[in-house]
Specification:
With 256 residues, this protein is α/β, with parallel strands linked by helices. The protein has two domains: 8-37; 42-252, Rossmann fold (3-Layer(aba) Sandwich), CATH 3.40.50. It has helices at residues 11-28, 63-75, 102-111, 121-130, 165-181, 199-212, 226-229, 244-252, and strands spanning 47-53, 82-88, 137-142, 149-150, 157-158, 188-193, 216-219. The radius of gyration is 22 Å and the shape is globular.
Length: 256
């Protein structure tokens, strides 16, 4: 059925004609709204977020929950304002290109088969910071201890060498130096996903965030559902994290 008005008598008729024409063009594209969306090149999006995703063995029981959390994060991003890339620590065949088609990225994340391994935390952060197009914010979550370190001289990676909290800080300082050298500085938001007794790991992530102007959140799986809480790091919610009481409500599980 078609609708046409030749010489519309008033503004209302003209508006109706425009609406019907729009419907017809959508139908001709297979009634699929995605078919007529034109995504900005990722480098042109003002918000360019890279997410470091811990797919280590200790995350095994929470991987699907973490994937749902990242998908919920993407659902809370503004289309054609935000481009996102996901950097898995162990799944090397995954593309780390920034994407502005967040619907497609969400589908790929849900379907991804991840390789479970160690926790090359610093190495993955460094690669995300140095990737192009340049990011505007780095977000990282982990449930364990880093199993790699970075040398301060030349920023050379040493992977899978278990290290102590002293070398964690030295490696963190390399990451902080890189983050501060990019543009006006890259904030690093961090999330520790684990119990409160992992104080060394918590202090490391707090240090990274505090030194770069990012936010730190602690998701204790006995209190917080990762898939519901991770969305608050999305650009449209992030300003609420400036409130310490709001962060506390997320970490307690009161904020859904």
């Amino acid at each position: 059925m078609s609708f046409s008005i030749t010489n519309p008598r008033n503004a209302i008729d003209a508006k109706r004609a425009a609406i019907e024409a729009r419907k017809a063009s959508t139908a001709s594209a297979g009634a699929n709204p995605a078919a007529i969306i034109r995504y900005l090149p990722p480098g042109e999006c003002p918000d360019r977020n890279r997410i470091v995703f811990d797919d280590s063995g200790s995350m095994g029981g929470y991987i699907e929950d973490a994937k749902r959390g990242v998908v919920e994060f993407l659902r809370n991003c503004i289309p054609n304002q935000t481009a996102v890339a996901v950097h898995f620590m162990n799944t090397k065949e995954w593309s780390t290109e920034l994407r502005s088609n967040l619907l497609e990225l969400s589908t790929d994340i849900q379907e991804a088969r991840l390789n479970i391994g160690g926790t090359p935390f610093f190495n993955t952060l460094k690669k995300a910071l140095e990737a192009t197009p340049t990011l505007t914010r780095l977000i990282a979550f982990t449930d364990g201890s880093p199993t790699d370190q970075l040398q301060s001289e030349g920023n050379n990676e040493i992977v899978e060498g278990w290290n102590t909290s002293g070398t964690w800080i030295a490696s963190a300082n390399v990451i902080i130096k890189i983050a501060k050298s990019i543009s006006t500085g890259i904030p690093i938001d961090t999330v520790f996903f684990g119990s409160e007794d992992r104080q060394r790991e918590i202090e490391l992530l707090k240090y990274l965030s505090a030194q770069t102007g990012g936010y730190f959140l602690h998701f204790d799986p006995s209190k917080v559902n990762f898939s519901q809480a991770f969305k608050y790091l999305a650009p449209c919610h992030r300003l609420m994290l400036a409130s310490s009481s709001f962060r506390a409500s997320i970490e307690s599980g009161r904020q859904k």
